[in-house]
Amino acid sequence: MQSQSNYIVMDERAVRRAIARMAREIVERNAGTAGLVLVGIHRRGVELAELLADEITKVEGQKIPLGTLDITLYRDDLSVIGPRPVIASSDIPQHIEGRSVVIVDDVCYTGRTVRAAMDHLADFGRPARIFLCVLVDRGGRELPIQPDFVGRHFDLTPAEDVAVLVPAEDGQLGVELRRTEPD
Amino acid sequence: MSRPIVLRGGRVIDPSCRRDERLDVLLIDGRVAELGRDLPAPDGGEDIDVAGLVVAPGLVDLHVHLREPGDEHKETITSGARAAVAGGFTSICAMPNTRPPIDDPAAVGFVRAEGERAGYARVYPVGAVSIGLKGEEMTEIGELVAAGAIAVTDDGRPVWDSGLARRTMEYTRAFDIPFFSHSEDLGLSGAGVMYEGSVSTALGLRGIPNAAEDVAVARECMIAELTGGQLHVLHVSTRGSVEVIRAAKARGVWVSAEVTPHHLALTDEAVRGYRTEAKMNPPLRSAADVQAVRDALVAGVIDCIATDHAPHHYEDKEREFDDAPFGVIGLETALGVSMRELVVGGRLDLIELIDRLSTRPARIARLPAGTLVEGSPADVVVIDPDERWVCDASRFLSLSRNTPFAGEELVGRVVMTLVGGRVVYDRRDDRKAAREGVEVT
Amino acid sequence: MTATVKFGKDLTGLEGLSVEQIATVLDVAEPFKEISERPIKKVPVLRGKTIVNLFYEPSTRTRVSFEFAEKRLSADTVNISGAGSSIVKGESLVDTARNLEAMRIDMVVIRHGSSGASQFLAERIPSNVINAGDGQHEHPTQGLLDMLTMRDQLGTLAGKKVCIVGDILHSRVARSNIWGLGKMGAELAVCGPPTLIPHGIEEMGVRVLKRIEEAIEWADVLNVLRLQLERMKAGYIPSLREYNRFFGLTVGKLEKAARDILILHPGPMNRGVEIDSQVADGPHSVILQQVTNGVAIRMAVLYLLAGGSPERAEAAKGGRRT
Known about the structure:
The complex is a heterotrimer of chains A (183), B (441) and C (322). Chain A is of the alpha/beta class and 183 residues long. Helix content of chain A is 30%, strand content 31%.
C-alpha cells in the first residue's frame, strides 16, 4: 500500500505575485502590448491566461485578446493512451498572422503538450513569434523546448508530483506538491 | 457370411413388438436368430457384453442428402453411409437432388450399388418426381422403383405444379411407394433466408413466413385426399402444418410426416450473429412452432424423426448469410439431440423415441427394418442412454461439419452399430486404440 | 478527467451500443464540427493510420462523407469499390479480408449488400471495422448523424416523438434509427405501406401508424426514407404516383400540422415521390445539416475506435499527462 501526502508549496498570494511578475516580463519582452495574443491550453492554462490578461490590462490599460487551445487531436500518443472523449473546441480570437502569441499552460514537463500546441497554432496561421509561459516548470523535458516565462521551478524526486490548482477546476488558486510514500 | 454374434445382457427395446426387457440376442447369417435369457455362446462366434446398454433395431432415416454424384467434396455415398452408422442409422434414404439428379433407372442403380459396395448403412435411393427436378415432365417412376427406388420426391424444391403433384400421387399408387413432399409455396417464401419474425426484422434478413409451408402442406393433403395416394410430408416445421396434417389424418387421408432434430431443438434465435450453420430450409421457427412439432411428434400426428442431413463444404458456409446455402448435417447428432430434447424431459420414453427413429419410418417406406423379431435383418444399434457427450464436429465421419450443435452437450450415444449381423461401427475400437496408443508411448 | 467510455474494436450497429457510448459519440462529434469550419480543415490525430473504404455497393454520399472525415483526421485512405476492382470481383469476402489484412491496414469502412457482412468481416480481421451500411441491417453512422441533427434542433432526444416514414422493410437507416433513438429515450413510430412494414417491428418498441396524416399529427420529427424505385417493379407498391399521394410528405399534408415538425431525409431524395421539394427545401428541413453533421459524426467514430485497445489505455495510465 502507498499513501500520498499533499503540501501547498505556493499559496494564492504567491501565485498572484508570480503572475504579476510574468505579466510585466511579457510586456517588457514584447516591448508593449501591440500584437500580443494570449492562448491558454485547456483546461488550467485557460484560467491562468485570463489572470495574466487581467494583470496586463491593469498595468497597461489595454485589453489583450485571449484564445484557447485543446490539443487532444494533436497529441502523438493516441494509440498509447486511447481516445479522450472530452474534447473542447479550440477558439482563437482573430488572425494570429504576424502577431506575438503567448502559449499559457499550468505545468511544463516533457514538452509534448507544447509541441502539440504549436502544431495546432500553425493551423490557424503564422505568428511572428511564439512565447511560452508556464506557472510551474518541473523539468524532465523530452523535447528541446524551454519556457520563456516561468512562475517557479521545482526539482522533483520520482516520488513527487506537482499540480496547479485553479478556482474553476479546484476551488482555489495555488500549487500543490504531492508525495507518494510507502506505508 | 459373418460369424454368429451374441449381444449379451443388454436391455432390448423393440417398438415393433413393444418389447423392453433384458435379453441376449443371437445374430446368425445376417438375421436375428434368437432372443432369450442366457443363450449359449455360439460356435466360432463372438460374444459381446452389452450389459447396461440398450439394444435396439437400427435407426432409419427417410431423409438424407449424400451429394454423390456431383458434390463429392461435401459428402459421398460411402462417407454418408459411414456417418450414418456412427449415428446409429442402419437404413438411410438418399434424396435425388444430386448433380445430375437421380431421375433415371441407371442413376438409381448407381446409388444402390455404391451403398452396397460401401458396406455401412443400407442406402435406399429416392427417385426424382420430375426429369431434372424441373417440375415439368414426370420421370419413369415405374422404372425407378424397379431399379430400387423406395419413394419419389423433388426435395430441395416443391412440385409447384399442382397438376403434376396430382398425377404423381395417382401414379405412385401402382407401385406402392410414397410421394415425399417438400412442401413450400415459392411465392410466399420468396427470397427469404430465415424465419419471418422479430429476429429477421432485427437482423435485416428477408423472412420466410410459416404460411409458405402451411399453404403447401394443405395443398398436398387435399391432393392426397383426392387421389388416395400415399403422401409423406418432409421436414414439418410449423404449427399450421401440424394442424393441417392432424385434420387430414382425422379424415382418413393417407399421410405421414417427419420432423428434423433441429426443428425439435432450435428456434430462429440460433441465427443471431448471422450464423450460417443455423441457415436451413425450412428455417428454424418460433418457440411456439417448436412446441407444436414436439407435441405433434409425441401425439403421433408427426410420425417420425428424419435428419434432412444436408452436408455443405466449409467454404460454402463461410460467407455472407444471404449467399450461404441452406442445410445442416444431422446423422451423427440425431440420437443425442432427440434424447436430450424428448427423453430427458420425459416427453417420450426411450421405446417411443426408438419407434419414431426406427420402426415408424421403416413402415412408411416399407423398408425391412425397424424390428428385432426373430427372422428380421440383423440391423442393430447399441446405445449408452446415459452418456452425456459434447458434440465435436471435427470428429465427425461425415465429410462436412455444418452442424448447429457444435459444442453442445448431447445425451445418449451410439456404442456399436451392426448391419446384416456385421459390426460396422464400434466406438469401443476407438477407445481401445486410444488406450493402446497410450501404452505404446 | 471525465471517465473514459470504452468502445469495442468495431462499429457494426447501434443495437450493441450502450446509452453512454451513443452519448459519447454525439458529444465528441460537437468539437469535430468546428474543425470543418477552420481555414485548415485538418488535425493530425490519425496520422499514419491506413483506412480502406470498401464499397461493394455504389454510394457517393456516404463514401465521400467518410473520406472527408478520414482526411480531416490525417489518415491515409484507399477506396475500393465494387465496380471495376479486381479485389472485389469474383473474390469471396473472406479472401478480400485476408488480402487487406496482409497489406497491414488499420481500419476498414465497409458498405455491402448483405446483412451481416460487416460483422462477418469484423470477426475475421483484427483491424477496426466500421459498418457503412450492410444490406437491410444497419447503417450506424447514419443513425448517429440523424440523432445529432435532432439533438441540435430539439436540445434532447428523450421523450421526443420520432416517426420514420416509408420503406421500413428494406431500410438499414430505419433499424439504426430505431435502436439508437430507442436507447436515448425517444418515442418511436413507423409509417408506410403495409407491404413495406416488417413483421415483428412492434417488438422493437415501435408503434405502427397506418396513415401519414396520423404521423404528422403525432410526431415531433419525421425521418422520411428514400423509396428505392425498384420496389415498384417488385410489386410492393402499385405506382409512384399513388405512393406520393398516400405516403409522400407533401406541403398540403404538412400544413395541417398543429406544431412545427422537424424533417429529416437520409438522401438521396426522390423529389415528388416520398418528399415534395417545398418540404425538402422548407424551413423545417434539416436535410443539409444532416450532411454537415455526417462528417463530424464519422470523424468522432473514427477517432474513438482508433484510440487503441482499452488494455493499452489502462497500461498507459501509469504515465503522466504532460
